[in-house]
Write a structure and sequence with these properties.
alpha+beta; Phosphatidylinositol 3-kinase Catalytic Subunit, Chain A, Domain 5; 6-stranded antiparallel beta sheet; 10 helices; globular; binds adenosine-5'-triphosphate; binds magnesium ion
Length: 386
């Protein structure tokens, strides 16, 4: 943990007041390349703990990564307190031949295609740092004010928001279902964002289904909280399994991160299940089917354009085949809905299941407070009945 963490959290020693400002030290492309290389060389030790105080940085997720601040065209190391503006996810040095880990190329292609199709997704790029390519995403939990000062916006992933342990991020392990996630957005999103957030989230489920985004678990969705307003964060960490696994594995043996209707396995997600998913996604069934149809039609071009945007040498054979493979896969799924009777008479309205319980109504959280210069920790207390 540290002073520049996900969202607006800053973790400091007991007697230290968290500061918004901090020093920035400029990094050359070669400096950044060295950090990228260090993660590639030793992916398990990507938290830089060589620095006593200078580099308090923390981000979730399994892949090695670090955060930088960008001002104009220059890159800076935010020394602790100063907010970073970009996240660098290395793990992709195909050009130098050191690893065959092309996940970042696949993530770049999937994210770019999503944006091109109108899915609300974070901005991503693959930049060249002195010959070393790295995946860079612009932080959506930072905002530059008119005075040029970068402010932190709080973010909470869906596990945090639902008080679910990270180990339960997948539905199959007892984690949040599609119904849980939709309910979270419906209940958390501010009234003026709610409608568009629910629509954007439904659209993300449609996209992730058609590209086989098998990793769309509860920690890969977040809410943003700025002052009194809450809204769904842009989509991130979108990765099509078609860029990673053989076609047959995706088609016959893979499953979505959550159930669509009653099924998770792609080969079992029938038209009836798509109708059920539409119910959970609060979208009229015919509208949802029309969107699947449209996405399936436009995906091959969108993916192809994104592959063409990859820096030279980064498209492996499998990445180059993504447009065609995703196109075929998406068309097959979308077609399951066509020609089937998906009326409410044929498929009763589907309620789905919630896996995550309501907070314990018998207990209330009493926030921590300063009392006579002593910090009194927050705690749960029994709700007193009146
Ligand atoms: N563009 C962004 N802006 C702000 N925060 C982000 C952004 N992209 C990712 N994050 C944050 O960083 C965390 C980790 O990112 P991400 O999910 O991309 O990493 P990962 O290592 O691929 O994760 P996983 O363990 O799911 O493979 C996310 O949960 C999110 O909180
Ligand atoms: Mg992730």
């Amino acid at each position: 943990m540290g002073e520049d963490a996900p969202g607006s959290v800053q973790v400091v020693p007991e007697d230290v007041v968290p500061a918004g400002m901090g020093a920035l030290s400029e990094l050359s492309d070669a400096d950044i390349a060295r950090r990228v290389q260090a993660i590639l060389d030793d992916p398990d030790h990507w938290v830089d703990d060589t620095d006593e105080d200078e580099s308090r940085f923390s981000l979730g997720g399994k892949q090695g990564k670090f955060a930088l601040a960008r001002i104009g065209d220059a890159w800076f190391e935010p020394n602790g307190r100063a907010p970073s503006t970009h996240i660098v996810k290395p793990g992709m040095a195909l050009a130098s031949g050191r690893t065959d880990n092309d996940v970042q190329a696949v993530e770049f292609v999937t994210m770019r295609a999503a944006r091109a199709l109108g899915v609300h997704a974070a901005t991503v790029d693959i930049l060249d740092f002195a010959g070393v390519p790295a995946f860079v995403t612009t932080r959506f939990d930072r905002r530059k004010d008119r005075d040029g000062v970068v402010r932190r916006i709080h973010q909470e992933d869906f596990c945090q928001a639902l008080s679910v342990y990270p180990s339960l991020k997948y539905e199959e392990d007892g984690g949040p279902t599609m119904a849980d996630m939709m309910r979270l957005v419906a209940e958390t999103s501010s009234p003026w964002y709610r409608r568009s957030d629910l629509q954007a989230f439904a659209d993300l489920f449609a996209f992730n289904l058609l590209v086989a985004g098998v990793d769309a678990h509860a920690k890969n969705h977040s809410m943003l909280h700025a002052g009194p307003a809450s809204r769904l964060a842009p989509a991130y960490d979108l990765i099509s399994a078609h860029g990673i696994w053989p076609a047959d594995r995706v088609k016959y043996r893979s499953a979505a991160a959550v159930r669509y209707g009653k099924e998770r396995k792609y080969r079992q997600i029938s038209g009836r299940n798509l109708a059920r998913a539409a119910d959970l996604l609060r979208t009229p069934r015919d509208e949802f089917m029309a969107r699947l149809d449209e996405l399936a039609a436009r995906l091959p071009d969108a993916v192809e354009t994104s592959v063409a945007e990859l820096p030279a040498g980064l498209a492996t054979d499998r990445v180059a085949r993504m447009p065609e493979r995703i196109g075929t896969f998406a068309r097959e799924i979308a077609d399951r809905a066509l020609g089937e009777d998906l009326s409410h008479k044929a498929v009763p309205r589907f309620e789905g299941t919630l896996a995550i319980g309501q907070p314990d109504a018998a207990r209330v959280w009493e926030p921590g407070t300063w009392r006579r210069k002593e910090w009194v920790m927050g705690r749960y207390r029994r709700r007193t009945r009146r």
